[in-house]
Amino acid sequence: MFTHGLPKLLGDSHGSMADPMASSTHLIGNVMGLPFAAELAFLVMLLETVGALMLVVGVLTRPVALAMAAEMAGISYALGPTWPWVDRGIEYPVILGSLALYMAIRGGGRFAFDHKLWHRR
Prior knowledge:
Elements: H1 2-10, H2 20-31, H3 37-57, H4 61-79, H5 91-106, H6 113-118
Helix pairs in contact: 1-3, 2-3, 3-4, 4-5
């Protein structure tokens, strides 16, 4: 997720997207038809950068993972229901969404910062 959020944050190109932030805004506003597309794209960028780093260290693992699972469900809805391995199929967001949902259910584990903070003996 971090590799998708960082180019949006820095304004760099990412793969075939010259402007990933504009692409996210387009997907949210024009494809999904949601209001406040620019603001939602900004929240997506924060989730993909800051949220990814939070998952790495295990801070607020369950809510961040649940938010990522919701994002992946939205992306799957917007891009699907195609399943090709190329041309922006939904297999990547489906697997990431499944992993995020697993993390939301199971938590960060014993090495997560959350565990260290809440399970002191």
